[in-house]
Amino acid sequence: MSNDNNDANGSNNTNINITEMMANVGKIKGKKTDIQNPELWDFPMDYPMSIIGHEGEHESLLNEIKLILGSQFPEFDLASIQVVPSRTGRFHSARVNLRLTSAEQVNALYAALAEAKTVRMVL
């Protein structure tokens, strides 16, 4: 909402309350790993994902990802995981393509990956 006021010199001062204009911006619903707008997701869907590991954690990253994906997606072919080094070779990313069926499944996956010790970032 804006208020127009003239000060003692006759100039016009305008005050704008920005929080009224952006009421829900910046508020996270649920846990930080939960998807924020599940109504925008169209399930079931194929979902490509890159899971980036910490430096020097190539083998343990792959093993941890296999444990997580194997437990949450029993039908997923673990042999289809592609591990790719970064340009400099310091980091590795595991690329997977998952078949997701619900928002709860996405939330559980991201929560498990956030808890994984070898995972640096998920894209």
Question: What is the topology?
Answer:
Layout: E1 2-6, E2 12-16, H1 18-21, E3 45-53, H2 58-72, E4 82-85, E5 92-100, H3 103-115, E6 119-122
Antiparallel strand pairs: 1-2, 3-5, 3-6, 4-5
Helix pairs in contact: 2-3
Describe this structure in words.
- The chain is of the alpha+beta class and 123 residues long.
- It has one domain: Alpha-Beta Plaits (2-Layer Sandwich), CATH 3.30.70.
- The protein is 26% helix and 29% strand.
- The protein is built from three helices and six strands.
- The protein has helices at 18-21, 58-72, 103-115; strands spanning 2-6, 12-16, 45-53, 82-85, 92-100, 119-122.
- The strands form two sheets. A four-stranded antiparallel beta sheet has the order 4-5-3-6.
- It starts with a strand and ends with a strand.
- Residues 18-24 have low confidence and may be disordered.
CATH class: Alpha Beta
Give the name of the CATH architecture: 2-Layer Sandwich
Helices, by number, come to: 3
What's the alpha carbon Rg, rounded to whole Å?
Answer: 23 Å
Number of strands: 6
* SSE succession: EEHEHEEHE
- How many structural units, i.e. domains? 1
Strand content: 25-35%
Please state the average pLDDT score.
84
Say what the CATH topology is: Alpha-Beta Plaits
What spatial form do the alpha-carbon principal axes imply?
A: extended
Structural category: alpha+beta
- Oligomer, anyone? single chain
Distance between the termini: 38 Å
**CATH homologous superfamily label:** ACT domain
Task: Please give the order of strands in the largest beta sheet.
Answer: 4-5-3-6
Please outline the major beta sheet.
4 strands, antiparallel
